[in-house]
Amino acid sequence: MAKTFAIVCDSSSDLSAAWCHENDVRVVPMKLHLPKGVYSDVVEVSAEQARELLLRGAAMGVSQPSVADFQNAFAQLAAEGFTECACVCTSQIVSITQTNARVAAEAVAKALPIAIEVIDSRTMSAGEGIVICDLVRNRAKGISYAESIDHAKRLVESLTTLIVLPPGQAPRFLPKRTLASRVNGFLGRALRIWGLEAFDAKGAPEVVARSTDPLQLAGLASSLTAVDAERQGRMAFAAFSTGADEMTAEILKTATGMLPKNHDLGTVMTSGAVTVRMGLGAVGIAYAPEDRCVTDPDLPLFRTLTGTAA
What we know:
globular; 310 residues; disordered C terminus
């Protein structure tokens, strides 16, 4: 009997290795470059470990998974008997991960009997995680591969991700930094200016507001989400954080403060790769109309910061 479809993602989805193992999602991880060597994000270095390393001042760089990394993952799935695979990647504007996945998918599909659909989440972190979680839930319900892919793509079109970024971090959000972004980063750090950014329809991060008060920006993020809920109906949302200190917790509480009547999918701590890009102290919220998501209470959920079901 043929197996149901496989699900693959990169580690920018911020889903833990345990969650992915439990829900049979294969992770092709980002690479974390540390003084002692190169390690696989999430797989070898957990979100908590990455945060502790950064708090101790460890130098950490990030690189994307290669074409060969994705080829190996797809070939392994084919060897296990999978004939269909959904691969969800972070926004192609933020990372070349998706390009590498597409090149690998084309090569593997020519040589092996497996169909691979690469989906641009047009976002990252919990936004990307919501798409993966939705695919997991569709698969659990017995929805076909084609229908699940179509559902995921429609979900992507309705996703919104808002991020409160610490001073100087906004220009580092993109992998390549221009001279202007370096100057803006220096000024942001010097003047302690926080940023609120969102992903546009193409998956590019854009500035929504700037302030020296992160709680003001978190309140704006909560208000924007609440306004969308009033216009479009109840929202399914997930929050994410790059840290666990008191200030970050307060920002997180403010960012979700106006959403008690909406569907909370849980809160995740970002992976090492995302934490490096966003900086310690960043907080975000990703959401979509509930009617675009599979929200059955008995199906897999995100995990909270403490590791319990949301």
